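Long-time lurker, first post.

We've been arguing in lab meeting about whether zinc ion would sit comfortably in this protein at all. Half the group thinks yes, half thinks no, and nobody has a model to point at. So I'm putting the question to the forum: if I give you the sequence and the SMILES, can you give me back a predicted structure of the complex? Inputs are below. Any interpretation is welcome too.
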Amino acid sequence: MQLYNKLSAKERAALIEEAGKQRLTLSFYQYANIGNPQILRNHLFLAWDALEVLGRIYIANEGINAQLSVPAENFEAFKKHLDSITFLENVRLNVAVEQDDMSFLKLKVKVRHKIVADGLNDDTFDVTNKGIHVDAETFNALIEDENAVLVDMRNHYESEIGHFKNAVTPDVDTFRDSLDIIEEQLAEHKEDKKLVMYCTGGIRCEKASAYYKHKGFKNVYQLEGGIIEYTRQVNEKELENKFLGKNFVFDHRRAEKISDDIIANCHQCGEPCDTHVNCENEACHLLFIQCKNCAAEMNGCCSDECKEINALPYEEQKALRRGKHNSNKIFKKGRSEVLKFKK
Ligand SMILES: [Zn+2]
Ligand SMILES: [Zn+2]
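Top reply:
Settle the argument with this. Predicted structure of the protein with zinc ion, as tokens:
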């Protein structure tokens, strides 16, 4: 019995290419009480590995959060397997707008303390007392209401390349930070304003809406299924699309184009651009926005220093890193003094 991934990403990429099968990128989550996450973990790994499912799945006592790539021909079997698990029966699957057969190259099912790193102490409030879920059509009407305040619950590097028109986009690095900022800004309006929130796939709003209700907000709404499901409904029902730019996603595609607007700028030259890259210097790996011209000029690096290091033979780079911890820039996504045009 094999309970862990055997192939390297490279071997997997070659296999996927060779197989030439179409794959679907999708995600789902569910809050539920899971008594023994490790047993569920092993059960899912065995079943999904057999179906050639790839992706990153977190399981905790509080639930499951999964981002996957499934061969199209195995989709029905996969769905059937999900339905065989009581708390996952008919769970909403968010199917990606832009498909990419290489979105995931390994199956990683991990047991975690939490399914989202939210920094919240769950004992203080009732997470099942959520906001009102709204679909795309209701959401479109709701955000035109002059008493509505629309809040983006994602981090700065996500909302930078795409967000809803007129949304408040807190300049934060973590979910926890944005909770406080919003509460402070709306402290006077807990009863009279409608707090409308959204995130990538809806999972962050599940907690955030319950948190705000706990904090005394009377009218809390959340976009069901997030930007991913909104886009699907807008396309299917031919609704007006009120989202500008790209939806940042957490697989190697990095983003899905939702509208043709480019609302961000290259962090190095300021030209309109919304393409995220990671600095080519492995010791840096900073996430930032870089246009094609700057990528060519800087060899994909974020700074002259990184460019110099990256040009050294690999052994010398390794020697430089010895004894040093990884740069904390990895955790300061898209923030660095060298990026002149980062807003
Ligand atoms: Zn540039
Ligand atoms: Zn760098």
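For your lab meeting: Residues 279, 281, 284, 286, 301-303, 306 surround zinc ion (ligand 2) (CB under 6 Å). The longest helix spans residues 37-50. Whichever side wins, do check it experimentally.
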